[in-house]
Design brief:
346 residues; 6-stranded antiparallel beta barrel; 30% helix; L-fucose Isomerase, Chain A, domain 3
């Protein structure tokens, strides 16, 4: 509430997600405010970005060892031209975030831009990573958000955006890697005696979350059914480790948050591939085991198909981060429910 923040909202409600919108009268008391932006401005900024600047982003990613699964058929394959447009969108998004002093931004993803530009997925994953291609201000060499992630919330889910902003500040204060992302809660099955969820975000997660980082990441064309103009994802397998999960939501006119602990497990390559093929193989995946929360409990209580996740270096430090985040959320006036077990507050 003392150090206020602005969330940049590109075309609020464009995707029709009612539970993604936080009413201003609930958001403002937390110390966070909206700058409502237009996707047309993002597209215009893309057009003002040079091919040379975009190619520098692509070259940076190639040097990091990222794999682009490309072809020549614009209708069905990912092409170098599509990737170049995505690199322009990345630069444009960073510059607009700087223009408006945004601490976080959200792009609508499937709607609005899909008939004008390739998908935003590659952009979104890069923004959420601390180690990312540098972007300079127009007309001078000032590096924007140097050494920082530009917090991005997929599908302009403002609940996820508020959550990600809090996570970023708490994790940085604790000295932890602050990369965070939302995932879709897809489905799950038992594996070796544990119920392992398929968390799958619709195109992009930060490479810091992946096995191998950028070198373990790939970009594949989004399905033509959704994206006529193509564009690549930022795909990888989430690394094993301890995480904090959460969801901010509006319930009965009150801003609330559920928060808990989980671990990410490694599954055999063939099981990972089976789960990918049963869902969407172009998208990044996380194999998550929630502590003390069953499938039916999550389905009965969770207020969205989105869930926010962030890694901590160890189980004890994840518990510390959960406690600090819960305290910050409460200090912002948000009702907090600590869910499950293994969170250190039993």
């Amino acid at each position: 509430r003392r150090d206020k923040a602005i969330m940049g909202i590109f075309d609020e409600g464009c995707m029709g997600m009612y539970n993604a919108i936080i009413p201003d009268e609930l958001l403002h008391p937390t110390g966070v405010f909206k700058e409502r932006l237009s996707q047309s401005a993002l597209y215009a900024e893309m057009r003002a970005t040079s091919d040379a600047e975009a190619q520098a982003v692509r070259d940076w990613l190639d040097a990091k060892g990222m794999t682009f699964v490309t072809g020549t058929d614009e209708e069905t394959e990912l092409t170098d031209a599509q990737i170049l447009e995505q690199c322009k969108m990345y630069i444009a998004a960073v510059r607009i975030a700087d223009d408006f002093g945004c601490a976080a931004i959200g792009i609508q993803y499937q709607q609005g831009l899909k008939d004008l530009a390739p998908a935003s997925d590659l952009v979104e994953g890069l923004l959420n990573n601390v180690d990312r291609p540098p972007v300079t201000a127009r007309g001078n060499g000032r590096v924007l958000f140097e050494g920082e992630a530009v917090v991005h919330f997929n599908e302009v889910d403002e609940c996820a955006g508020l959550d990600a902003l809090v996570t970023n500040r708490v994790w940085k204060a604790l000295g932890f890697d602050p990369e965070t992302t939302l995932h879709d809660v897809r489905w799950g099955e038992e594996f070796n005696g544990e119920y392992v969820w398929v968390f799958l975000i619709s195109g992009a997660a930060p490479p810091q979350h992946f096995v191998g980082g950028y070198a373990g990441a790939s970009s594949e064309r989004q399905p033509p059914m959704y994206f006529r103009l193509g564009g690549g994802t930022l795909k990888g397998v989430s690394k094993p480790g301890e995480i904090v999960w959460s969801r901010v939501y509006v319930d009965a006119g009150v801003l609330r948050a559920d928060i808990g602990r989980a671990k990410v497990v490694e599954l055999p390559a063939e099981e990972t591939e089976r789960r990918w093929q049963a869902t969407t193989p172009q998208w990044p995946i996380m194999h998550a085991v929630l502590y003390g929360v069953t499938r039916d409990q999550l389905m009965g209580k969770h207020k969205a198909n989105h869930i926010q996740v962030a890694y901590a270096p160890s189980a004890a430090e994840a518990n510390q981060a959960l406690g600090a985040k819960a305290a910050m959320l409460r200090a912002m006036g948000i009702d907090v429910n600590v869910c499950g077990t293994e969170h250190g507050m039993e």
